[in-house]
Write a structure and sequence with these properties.
398 residues, mainly alpha, two-stranded antiparallel sheet, 17 helices, 1% strand, transmembrane helix, transmembrane, membrane
Length: 398
């Protein structure tokens, strides 16, 4: 079974020449920087206020519903058909990995509210087990979340049999067991720091206009966040860049000539994430990389979300005897998707530049000349221009 994902074919699908798109990308970052420098002369994202829903009656039904669906998906992956009729791959790679981003951007950290691991933690009464103070969670959590995200990226992009429902089911059971064990040791707060998908949703939720006042102020919270945050973001964005790169004929030819696809894929994934991590650490763009990662991930997997997301729902209901014989054949227009992808990438980078500028203003000592602050931001701007070019080039050149 193959789950469609990624970009829209070749650069010839673009309604504009690729070189013009790349120039527009660099211009967008540069103009965003100059515009924010002229019009954004004081830090405006601090202090931040996180808004919480006034009504919470929906939480328990939503948690139980998500837990029930999760248990069904895992059981179906372990004991159901091991062919294309099983929706397990769609549930993990499309609904959770891709669909969680726009949901979190719209509503805030959605996975925190419905995380089935939190529900299972409470139902199993693991909260009654004594655990050490919260600082122990803070020390280990970000690194465990980073390793978990890297493991997921390896499963999705490299692992043999990655769309085999049985493999997916075993991985999900193992991941749940590890997370519940660590939560029993450190308490329920563990999930907010050590569960890769909850951290992933929380970071995307920093962009939610409903959750944060003023808008984008969630990106100024806990800044600088430390090396663990930088590593997590490097794996998030770097794995998506690696996915784009492996869709190119150059990579396919390289693997065909040398063999050892799994070993080369593993080395390539780690290398790309490592290079992104070095760039993030040297430029200090950790939190401002969040909108870039959000924009690029949604752009990269936009076709998958629009095509395979509904198809997965159809596969699920067909297992219940509904809509038998129905086939999802609706596909978006390639040129429309191409334009949306360019807009998503450029918008993410423009927001990233704005946030980086605000964070630089907030960190500048009182009385520091504005030109000196702008000079400090130059490495960030250059890094973001490189990210923009890389994102656009890899997305459309295959």
């Amino acid at each position: 079974m193959t789950v469609l994902a990624h970009g829209v074919g070749q650069s010839t699908d673009l309604p504009l020449p690729l070189d013009l798109v790349l120039q527009a990308g660099a211009a967008t970052v540069a103009i965003s920087f100059l515009g924010s420098a002229l019009l954004w002369r004081r830090a405006r994202l601090s202090p931040a206020t996180e808004c919480h829903p006034r009504s919470t009656w929906w939480r328990l039904p939503a948690r139980l519903a998500v837990l029930a669906v999760s248990i069904y998906i895992v059981a179906d992956a372990l004991f159901g058909p091991r062919d294309a009729s099983n929706p397990a791959a769609h549930a993990l790679y499309v609904w959770l990995w891709v669909g969680l981003i726009p949901l979190s951007v719209a509503l805030g950290p959605a996975w925190r509210a419905v995380n089935p691991l939190r529900t299972a933690y409470r139902l199993l009464r693991l909260d009654r087990i004594p655990h050490p103070p919260t600082p122990a969670v803070g020390a280990a959590g970000p690194w465990v979340a980073t390793v978990g995200l890297l493991g997921f990226a390896w499963l999705e992009l490299v692992a043999p049999g990655r769309t085999d429902p049985l493999v997916i089911g075993l991985v999900l059971v193992g991941y749940a067991a590890v997370q519940l064990g660590l939560a029993a040791r450190f308490g329920e707060d563990w999930f907010g720091r050590g569960d890769a998908f909850e951290v992933y949703s929380d970071l995307a939720g920093r962009l939610s206009p409903l959750r944060w006042r003023p808008w984008l102020s969630g990106l100024a919270v806990d800044h600088p966040a430390g090396i663990g945050r930088a590593a997590f973001l490097a794996v998030w964005w770097g794995s998506t860049v690696f996915d784009s790169a492996t869709g190119s004929p150059a990579w396919a030819g390289f693997v065909q000539r040398h063999g050892h696809a799994t070993g080369l894929g593993t080395a390539g994934l780690v290398a790309v994430c490592g290079l992104v991590f070095l760039g993030v650490r040297r430029s200090g763009v950790a939190n401002s990389l969040i909108p870039i990662a959000v924009g690029y991930t949604v752009a990269h997997y936009l076709t998958s979300l629009l095509v395979e997301g509904p198809r997965g729902v159809l596969l699920l209901v067909q297992q219940w005897g509904l809509a038998e014989g129905a086939v999802w054949t609706v596909g978006p227009d390639a040129r429309v998707v191409s334009v949306l992808q360019v807009v998503l990438i450029l918008s993410g980078h423009a927001v990233g530049v704005l946030v980086a500028h605000d964070l630089a203003l907030a960190a500048a000592p009182p009385g520091r000349p504005p030109l000196a602050t702008l000079a400090d931001e130059l490495p960030v701007v250059l890094f973001m221009i490189a990210c923009t070019w890389a994102g656009l080039f890899l997305l459309f050149v295959r």
